[in-house]
Design a protein that fits this description.
By secondary structure, the protein is mainly α. The protein contains 20 helices and three strands. This is Lipopolysaccharide assembly protein B.
Length: about 400
């Protein structure tokens, strides 16, 4: 007997013992004893002959469904699902539900477990149907709403996800405005890809009405206006980020610069950057402002701006910009060293993540509105400090 089969046989021994115990109880109550005994022996034979699959089915059949064994069936089903034997869990729960003598309470519990089984193998259409049925049951309503919300997110059914999240918020009183706003942003992105700009803007507006602090909605609205060449409207949308979460401003900077360029409002752009720094914007805004100072004045003025900032807020990105400003004016003997230092800083910046999840600590170089690790919405934020903004 190989090692894994031995483990399987050992795992089945408690089930065999339980079946034997229940068989003994039943045999004392009636004339079923001989039949049950023969099936019990058959199960043991399967076990001894290294046929654990058949043994499991035989022992499960011995567990007649009544008030004494429902919890045993449910526990076994849960165990099978956790061990990855979902087909057995499904068969067991289906068998349980089919019993006419099952109480309404136990049936609903079995239905919920069957829904979890279907989820485990990606049969979301079947699990969705079961969880929708259980919404009428006060005991399982909230758990079913949670499962339905997860299903709609996995299947990217954002319209239904928003509706279920609203029901969940009303039912359990837990704030769902952030994820709901993201669901409408997802819908807006879909409509934009389909070329339905009117519907895209309507969904963005809906997102902002639900969560006025949605940076994603402002970015998306600004991008749509920029695409439509509504530059002033785009700027207005992007500027909202200053009050929503200024840490995300670097995400919009290239687009803001483009919008101001098309409006030929260079002074307005500089004033916007000045205001952003006053409100606590990070080094990306400083670097952008230094380029304007460099153009309007000279390299020295730009270097002084960067140097003053770095004294209070050290930053690799700021240091790289300062090195670049000094290389052109350095003596020939110093240029190789400065260039080497610039290369080292650039490699350090390239290796470091730009974002981190405040919920689970997941780090990434790309922005995610939903953390890929913990699945939390709006938890991934730009990293601040010497290695970030």
């Amino acid at each position: 007997m190989n090692q894994w089969l031995l483990y399987g046989v050992l795992a089945l021994l408690p089930l065999a013992a339980l079946s034997g115990f229940l068989m003994g109880r039943k045999s004392r109550k009636g004339k079923q004893g001989n039949s049950l005994s023969s099936n019990y022996i058959k199960g043991l034979n399967y076990l001894l002959n290294e046929q654990p699959d058949k043994a499991v089915d035989t022992f499960i059949d011995l567990l007649k469904v009544d008030t004494d064994t429902v919890e045993t069936h449910l526990a076994l089903g849960n165990l099978f699902r956790k061990r990855g034997e979902v087909d057995r869990a499904i068969r067991l729960h289906q068998n349980l539900i089919a019993r006419p003598q099952l109480s309404s309470k136990d049936r609903n519990t079995a239905l919920f477990q069957l829904g979890l089984d279907y989820n485990a193998v990606g049969m979301y259409d079947r699990s969705e149907k079961l969880f929708n049925e259980l919404l009428a049951d006060p005991v399982h309503k909230n758990e079913s709403l949670v499962q339905l919300l997860n299903i709609h997110q996995l299947t990217r059914d954002w319209d239904d996800a928003a509706k279920i999240a609203e029901q969940l918020q009303s039912s359990i009183g837990v704030e769902q405005t952030k994820p709901i706003a993201h669901f409408y942003c997802e819908l807006a992105s879909q409509k934009r890809q389909e070329g339905d700009i009117k519907a895209a803007l309507a969904n963005v507006k809906k997102a902002l009405s639900i969560n006025s602090d949605s940076v994603r909605a402002s970015l998306l609205q600004g991008d749509i206006h920029l695409q439509q060449k509504n530059y002033k409207q785009a700027i207005k949308s992007y500027q909202r980020i200053l009050q929503q979460d200024i840490a995300f401003l670097p995400e919009a900077l290239p687009s803001i610069s483009e919008a101001y360029h098309h409006t030929k409002d260079r002074t307005g752009y500089k004033n916007f950057l000045d205001k952003s720094l006053e409100l606590g914007a990070g080094v990306s805004v400083l670097v952008e402002l230094s380029k304007i100072i460099q153009h309007d004045k000279d390299d020295r003025a730009a270097a002084e701006l960067i140097g003053g900032f770095l004294q209070d807020r050290p930053s690799l990105k700021g240091l790289q910009r300062l090195i670049a400003l000094h290389i052109e004016h350095a003596q020939d003997s110093a240029k190789p060293s400065l260039q080497l230092l610039d290369d080292i800083v650039e490699k350090l910046i390239a290796r470091k993540p730009r974002y981190a999840c405040h919920n689970c600590g997941f780090e990434t170089k790309a922005i995610y509105w939903q953390c890929p690790s913990c699945k939390e919405w709006s938890s991934v934020k730009p990293i601040k400090g010497i290695e970030g903004e």
